[in-house]
Structures are given as C-alpha cells and as structure tokens.
Amino acid sequence: MHTVVERELELKLVLSPERSIPVPARLSYRTTDPYAVHVAFHIGSEHPVNWTFARELLVEGVFRPSGHGDVRVWPTKVAARSVVLIALSSPDGDALLEAPSAQVSAWLERTLRVVPPGTEAGRLGIDDGLAGLLAPPPELSPSLDPQGAGPSDDPWPSDEPVDGE
C-alpha cells in the first residue's frame, strides 16, 4: 500500500529583512519515494515550482542548520515566532523561504510515523527486485510451453551439430 502525506501551508518568500510576500505551498511525502520530500510552490504561474530534497535534511533543519549547496534549512525566531528558513539555489536564482516551525514539524512527524527513520530502504522493494533477477529461471513445462516443445527440446538450440546430422 502506498501512502501520501500532504500539507498545504503558507510560506513567506523573504525579499529583504523588512519585506516578504506570501507563497502558498504543498508539502508532500510519498512512501514510494521514502527518502525525499517534495515541495510545490504556487507562485501565480501556470505551473507550480517543484523542489525535491532529502527528508532527513528537513528533519535535521527543524533543530539545527542543515544542508549545503542547493538546499539549506535552519531554525530561527522571527518576531518571537519559531520558524524554519529554507534557502534554495538554482541556475534560475535564489530564494529564502520562511515556514512556520509548528506546521512543518507536525507534518514531518506524520511522515516519520508512516515510514520511521532507518526503514526507508524496505519501502523501495530493492530486495524483492534483486531476488527476482537472481532467481533461477523456471523450468519449461511441456504443458506451459507455447511453442509445443517437449521436455527434451532445447529452447535455445546451439550451432553445434547433433549426433547423426
């Protein structure tokens, strides 16, 4: 069974220390992609701007500075409110977003109940996929062979001559 944990919330796009604008966003977590969180920012364009990054980075960033490069997350206080700042960098530009800590933390807790830390790999089905790839092929049965080959017929004949030919 696949589960999706979503939360709509309003972030603030920080333009300067004195100015920010509201940005509706959707946080999404999918058990089919257990290591990642997805954030869709609705910025008034036809399509939302989507970012995907490690769930662990966001979990850690609620408590202490986390990440480097394209995504950085850290907790702080703004006007006595606890917030999480998310800095995003791309070739198209940089953005600093402010998210309410309580809402982000509550959503993260839901994701952690669905897939506890350390159990993500079990959700990927890698072991089942490898077992299927490494399993010996099933024996061809005369009743199941669509070509009508009998048990002694080789489904992959070789180029070597057979006795009497």
Characteristic key phrases:
single chain, about 160 residues, alpha+beta, elongated, 8-stranded antiparallel sheet
Quick structural gist:
The protein is an alpha+beta fold. The protein is built from four helices and eight strands.
What is this structure's SSE topology?
Elements: E1 4-16, E2 19-30, E3 36-41, E4 49-54, H1 55-61, E5 66-68, E6 71-78, E7 81-90, E8 93-100, H2 101-114, H3 120-123, H4 126-134
Antiparallel strand pairs: 1-2, 1-8, 2-3, 3-4, 5-6, 6-7, 7-8
Strand content: 35-45%
Count of strand segments = 8
Mean pLDDT equals 84
Number of helical segments?
4
Low-confidence stretches are none
The H/E string reads: EEEEHEEEEHHH
User: What is the subunit organization of this protein?
Assistant: single chain
Q: Give the CA-based shape.
A: elongated
The radius of gyration over CA amounts to: 26 Å
CA distance, first residue to last residue: 57 Å
Fraction of residues in H or I helices: 10-25%
Q: How would you write the strand order of the largest sheet?
A: 4-3-2-1-8-7-6-5
The biggest sheet amounts to:
8 strands, antiparallel
Q: What structural category arises from helix and sheet content?
A: alpha+beta
